[in-house]
Amino acid sequence: MTSNRSRPRRKFRRLFKRNVYKEAVMALYIVADECISCGDCEPVCPTNSITEGKIVFEIDKKTCTECEGDFDKPQCVRVCPVDNCILPLPA
Ligand code: SF4
Ligand code: SF4
Question: Residue 11 domain-assigned?
Fold first, then answer.
């Protein structure tokens, strides 16, 4: 069964692929207060978007693709041991 919550996201992705939303950012970010700097997310990123920042790890919003085209789910979220540590970037 398809949930209503996923429909807008699918529509957004379709439009994004057609470059309708050229200015929209499709990326995740690391919540600094939650990150324990374990480094588990860095090696699994297919776009090398994760680096160790001055305080905690950071995601480059210019290169993060939310793993679209490489994996079904964001790999950084999959391996992160902390719940709600990596979240979608607010629009
Ligand atoms: S969502 Fe995917 S591409 Fe973006 S930072 Fe996480 S692992 Fe990298
Ligand atoms: S896996 Fe999670 S807790 Fe570990 S460095 Fe990455 S964001 Fe921080």
Answer: no
CATH number of the domain bearing residue 57: 3.30.70.20
This prediction's pTM:
0.77
Q: Report d(CA 78, CA 33) in Å as an integer.
A: 19
> How high is the pLDDT of residue 49?
98
Mutate to test the pocket of ligand 1, among 40, 52, 66 (most ligand atoms within 8 A of CB): 66
- Domains: count for the chain: 1
80 lines ligand 1 (CB under 6 A): no
The preferred substitution site among 25, 26, 28, 85 for testing ligand 1, maximizing ligand atoms within 8 Å of CB, is 28
Task: Report the pLDDT value the prediction gives residue 2, as an integer from 0 to 100.
Answer: 47
User: Strands 86-88 and 28-30, how do they pair?
Assistant: antiparallel
Confidence of residue 25 (pLDDT cuts 50, 70, 90): confident
